[in-house]
Structures are given as structure tokens and as C-alpha cells.
């Protein structure tokens, strides 16, 4: 795969899947905009990308103004956009009896769904111009954007060894303890998900759109 001179914007790029994906795109020759809330972590990822075509953008994309700034900054820096990777997300938990249930729900939806929809909305004019390329949203967007040559796919990972649990306050949870949740009894590494994302964005996947790829070591299969 080659992404030479392609421009890729990755949200949630400060660690985990986002960081691994950004590094792989950079390795394949892409110009990459790294977006996240932790500048220190973003700068470390930028160093690992080993490329001069990396731009760090500190932003909270759940804030519409900051999301728009992300897109404007990316276009100003690289003059186009070929690939958008909506990776930013949080993990929280609350039971139906929890007083903070709806607060937890709103925060998750704001970042894990709404922010992705808005980032896509901001990216569409640029993706259409360059002809580049959440399940229901993916299919709907794929239908709407197909006539413009834009492909839309999604990746649904299972347990992945990142710092999302630590960031969410689950310091007593071990990744090894989560192995039993999968059919293959293993936890994915961020690089495995990055491989799939870069494949879907490449010309090798030029016939694929509107698809959701489950990459969870059989976790969903085990619990169906």
C-alpha cells in the first residue's frame, strides 16, 4: 500500500489505535494530521511517525468550534484531505440505577457518535474534491457519498491493548482478564486495527464501501 502525498486526518491519535494508525499511514508516505487532547502524547506519536509531514493539533472534537478548527487547520496546512479516520472515543460505565446514568450516556454519545458525524460533515466537501475515500451512519454516508467517489467504511474492534481503560479510571482491570471474552482468547494490539484501517483506505479496497469490519477476536460471536 502507498499513501504517498495523501493527506490523512486521525482523531484520537494520542495513543492506542489512533497512534498506531497514524504511524502506519506515515510509514506509507502520507501527510498526517494528529488530533487529540494531550499535546505531550501527540508529540511523542509525531516523533514515532519519523516524518516531516506530520502536524499536531490539540483539540477536543466534541466541541464544534474546536472540531471546525481541526478541519480548517488541516486544510490550511496540507491544502487537501484524502482520508478521515474517526477514532476518538471514550469508555464509561453506569448501570440503570446510577444517578449519573444520563450524564455518562450524554458524554459517550457526544464523543463516540456526534463528534464523528460532525467531523465527517466538515470533511465531506474536501473528500469529494479529492475523490478519496457506527454502523448505520456508515451505510447511510456510503450511499450518499458514493456518487461523488467517496468510500465510507467502519471498523468495530473488540478488546484492544490501549490506555483507554486507564484513562477511564478502570485501574484495577487487567487486559489479560479480558481474554476470556473472546473466542480466540487474545487481546488485539493497536497495530492490528491500524492494518485494517489503512487497507480500507487504500486502493486495494477500492470496491469496498458501506461495510463494517468486526475485528474482535470473536468476542461478538462468543456472546451472540
Any chance you could write out the topology, listing elements then pairs?
Blueprint: E1 7-11, H1 16-27, E2 31-36, H2 39-49, E3 54-58, H3 64-78, E4 83-85, H4 101-130, H5 135-145, E5 154-157, H6 164-167, H7 190-201, E6 212-215, H8 219-223
Parallel strand pairs: 1-2, 1-4, 2-3, 5-6
Helix pairs in contact: 1-2, 1-7, 3-4
Family: Belongs to the short-chain dehydrogenases/reductases (SDR) family.
InterPro entries: NAD(P)-bd_dom_sf, SDR_fam
Walkthrough of the structure:
This protein has helices spanning 16-27, 39-49, 64-78, 101-130, 135-145, 164-167, 190-201, 219-223; strands at 7-11, 31-36, 54-58, 83-85, 154-157, 212-215. The chain is an alpha/beta fold and 224 residues long. The protein has a single domain (7-221), classed as NAD(P)-binding Rossmann-like Domain (Rossmann fold). The strands form 2 sheets. It has a 4-stranded parallel sheet, with helices on both faces. Helix 2 links the parallel strand 2 and strand 3 (54-58). The longest helix has 30 residues, at 101-130.
